[in-house]
Design brief:
Layout (H helix, E strand, L loop, with lengths): L30 H12 L22 E5 H12 L8 H13 L2 E9 L4 E9 L12
Antiparallel strand pairs: 1-3, 2-3
């Protein structure tokens, strides 16, 4: 056994970082303040699990595209349709493309994985923003 494994040697310790803990102290709340606190708690928005991606909430590349993997597509399909779908079939692809256009995507195309010869997922293209041409003011 090595010395460092049986506590016979001194081991160097150094401070790497500092952790701060915040403690909520209980306070008394008046009855009229209670309704304000309830509305604050109820209005907190949580992200739903396996929600259909939208252009506003997705992380887009500079060209306005993002990629949705086959596993995520199947999870969204199972949650929405309530079927136990295991494979990415043609009806699932058609459903995903239809639903993508309903959620604000301009174009959706499925991409094949070159090594596995199966669909890797879907590339989603957001609608282009109307950009005004640059006009010099001088």
């Amino acid at each position: 056994m090595k010395d460092c494994q049986n506590d016979k040697t001194n081991q160097d310790t150094s401070v790497v970082g500092v952790v701060y803990f915040a403690i909520n102290t209980p306070r008394q709340v008046k009855h009229d303040e209670l309704s304000e606190i309830r509305t604050e708690v109820q209005t907190k928005k949580t992200k739903t699990k396996f929600a259909f991606p939208t252009p506003d909430e997705s992380y887009l590349e500079s060209d306005g595209t993002c990629f949705c993997t086959r596993d995520r597509i199947l999870k969204i399909y199972r949650k929405t349709i309530n079927k136990t779908q295991q494979k990415l079939t043609e009806p699932v692809e058609q459903w995903f493309i239809r639903t993508a256009t309903q959620h604000g995507w301009e174009h959706a195309s499925f991409i094949t994985d070159c090594s596995a010869r199966q669909k890797a997922g879907c590339k989603l293209q957001a609608k282009a923003l109307k950009v005004l041409p640059y006009a010099a003011t001088h």
